[in-house]
Structures are given as C-alpha cells and as structure tokens.
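Please, structure for the following, as tokens.
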Amino acid sequence: MSEHGTITKSGATANPNGILPIYVYADTVHRRQPFDIVPLLFEGANTIHIRDAAAAAYGIVEKGYGKLYHHILRVLNKLEKSGVCHKQKGIMFLGGWDTPIYFWRLTIAATNLIRQVQISNPQEKAQIGSETKGKQPDKWYWARFPKRTNPLRIDACKLLRNTRCREHLWMWQRESRSSPIRPELQHIMACVKKPYDRYIREINSKAIVLCPYSQRQSPDKSRLKLLKYKTRFNDKGRQLTNLDTYDNAWNESKKYYNHAAFLTLTTAPGMHENVWIANRHFAVAWNRYMSLLTKRNKAAAKKAGTYDPKKSYRPKYICVYEFQKNMMLHCHAILFGIDRIANDIQISRDWEQCGQGKITKQIPLVRTVDNNWEWACGKPADAKDGESPEKYLRKYLNKAVYDHKDFEMYWAINKKFMSKSRNLAPFGHPDEPPKPPKKEKQHTEPIDYIKDDDGIVKPVYQERIPEPSKTQRDPEWAYLGTISGGVFPRWLETMFDARSRPASISSGAPLPVAKNKHKPYYIGFVPASAIITDENPPPQLITNLIPTEPDRSEYDRQLAEETRFMEEKRARLKQRSGSA
C-alpha cells in the first residue's frame, strides 16, 4: 500500500492511460479504498471536479467536503512543486463557485517518467517533492569528507566535526581576546596536531618508485627511479613559492590600479554547528560575497551607461588566510579597483547574509607617486609605524611559511595559505625556462630532375629522415608504489630542486620527469649500482630485513651544504620582505 503523498510504483495496476496511479485518501478510514486522480489530471480538471469525483467514490456527504478539498489541494500543490503537473487559473464556470478556480494537468515529463519507472523498476517509489529532472549538484559538497586522502586526515576531520562551536568556542568568544584559551579547547587543538605529526613522519620516510611506462608489467631493475615524497607541508620550496606568488601579484596590481580596499572578514562560531563546517563554509561564503560585489558593479556600470558585456566586473583580490586561537578561519583581503566597498554596517550585513560571520573591517588604500601602496586613512591597530599594506599582509603569510603556524589546521581543512585572482599573475612564470624558438622549414634545392611518361619534367628532392618519436626521446614513467625510509638510499633524503642541488649527488645523468607548466623539476637518475646491491634491493623484493648503514660522510657533507644553501635563501627572502 502506498504512503500518503507518494507516487506508487509497486503493487499497483496501471490505469487505461498506461500510467501508474496517484492515490489520495479522504481520511485514515478510507485508506483501504484509494482513489486514482491520474485519469482526471491526464485530461485536465479543476479542483472542484476532482473533489466531487473523490467524494462520490468515498460516499462522502457535504459534511466532509471541506476536509477532502483541502487534502486534495495539498497533494496537488506537492505534485506541482515536484514538476508532475501544471496549475493554471481559470474563469468562472456554471454550477461552480463565483470566484476563479485552478485547473490541473499532468506534464509530459511526468507521464514519461512514470511510464519509464513502471517498465524498468516497478519495485521503487519516488517521494512527491523530490527532483524529477536530471541529476542535481550536491549543495553540501563542501562539507563532505574527502574520498581520496590519508586516513590520518580523516581522523582529524572527524575530530573537528565533533567539536561543537556552541559548547567549546562560544564562551571563549564572549570573553576578551587576551584571555587564555580554555583547557578543553587546548586539548582539542593538541589532538588535531597528533595525526598531523604522524602524517609528516610518514611522508618523510617514504619515496616514490617509478619505472618506464613501457616496462610497467615487468620493470627493469636498472631503470627504476626514486622520487622524494613531497607535499606543501614538508617541502620548503613549495612553501616559499607562496611568497613569490604574493610578490608577483602585488607587482602586477601596481600596473593597473590606483585604488584598493583592505578588508578583514571573520567567522562567527555561533552561526555554525561545528568547527569543520565553520571553516569549510568560508570558501562558499567568499564566493557568494564576490558574486554579490560583481552584481553590484554590473548594476553601477549599467546605470552609468558604461556597461561592456565582454568585460569582467569581478573584483581582483589578494587574500591571506589565518586561523585564530579558537580554530576559526578569517582572512585579510585586498580588493583592487575599489576605493570603498560600502559602509561598515552594510558590509557586516552582507557578510552575515553570506552565512559566515558579522565582524568585518574596511580600510581604503591608495597608490602613491613612487609606485607604492599606502593606507589612505587610518591603519590596523597592530600595524607598525611606516608599515605598508604589502608588508602588513605579508606578515601573516610569513607566519605560515617560516613558523609553520597552524599547519595542522591548513592540512585538516585543506586550505591554501593565500589566494589571488588569475589576472594578477605575470605573463610567463619567472621559474619557467624560455621556450626555444621554432625551427623554420628548410626549403632545400632539388637534387635532380626527371621526365615522366608524358614528357613533363619534375624535380626530385632528398628524402627526409624522420625524427625519433617522443617516446624514444623522453619515455614516460609509470607509478609502481612507495617504499619506506629504511630501504632507499640515505642520499635521497637530501635531494631537492636541481637548480640548487650539487651535481655529485648521484652518479647517473639527470633526466626530466613529469614537467610542470610553471615549475620544471629535475631529479637524479638512480644508477644501477644503487638498485641491485644488497644495501638497496628493488621494491618488489623488499623484505623486513634492515640493510646495512652506508657511509655517512658523503651524506653529512651534502646535508651541511643543503643547510647552508637554505639559510642563505631564507636570509635573502627575509631581507626582501623587510622582516629582517
């Protein structure tokens, strides 16, 4: 038997139109006598006719007309909301009410859907009110746990999801910011850091094994390649790339804009259920707010008569993210091309409507004659005297890159350290090598002339030798798996970018691997001696036996050289940022 308000697909007999019935009931007493309204909706009927037909089938007198009418009206409204039928206001008809009534008719999509379900899967039933169209996007995609990630990160995500904002964060939010963090919150933060530390130890003790793609079924021991397991949390080069991206974005902004607005947006714990949802929803709220500003910019351009449909009215921005002491995410953003977004009350109201928080702060910026950005009126309370907006915003990025502040939260939430508009990227990445010029076609002279059977003289050219294919020049590599730190060579622990590593780090010639468009990495080719010896067996023959420890003199020398190089690079970067 069908439930109330459902399209029945099981245990039902189709009506003469070939469509499964839609039942309505007068009350609980008549549930054993369902009335099918599909024949009436198929031809088109008004609410009064459907009520009269159902009352005649149930034997209801005038006393129950009102209850039956409103019950049928609720069912029809559900059918219309789910796209099963159309509703149209009609005119007065003889014998009916003096006011216009509504006529109802099934849609073509509803008839096709019901017939298709009747033939393909007669045991299912679809609820009225559910989407009957194509597959709809998941509105809560941002709150789902990642499907392909390390299990340790899933544990951290579950811990953040179980941390209720109103239980653990609300009292701290009501107190002053200088007050110490509650012991319960300190315990939660320590529990989040434990899986992160285990994750760092795990990836630091792993190496990736590659083999030529053509030999992936039976790999050759002498052609294996080992790569350091690198992520943005254990690779200093990738962390410092954020500083280069930040500097390039500011340099590009000085070419096109004279005004900007500094904006701080926070997260209100009371508006969210738990820490996981509060931080993951920040990106959704940011996109909503940027779309709102884009809509207002378009409306202002249309009002001024300068609207161009080919132009983008989305504000260009630089945004740096930071976690507060209560694990809530907030951002400091620079919106270029806007001297004033709105008044503070309007910004707070808009950010609250985006579903993230209420506390906001806005400060206008201006580009001076010497091509530097300065505060137009006022500055943040924690900004030093003479500190420019660029250096002030970079201070928060330095905390993440150099001090590894709140790395466990960036890792658990999967949040970037900073973001920017695509238009603020320079043409051509500074780390990308220049492309070689294209070779012009060589127009060779004919080596001879021959005469065909018709007496026509034709030139004869030298036959070109085809160039070797791309597979022969640079073979692709297939992924075999990972090995732990006890079996791969110790010198692999000190490997880093080829632009800075010593040439004697391995005896093999450097070969390119998986070139990135913006960051080409080169790694040393693993020599055959490093694979077939007992100290470093191939991955498919690795056992639990720990190999003998190799000579550490070369390793110590390379480690000291790498440390010296990184200290010099860090000093140069600090000098550039003005934090030294």
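The first strand starts at residue 6 and ends at 7. The radius of gyration is 35 Å.
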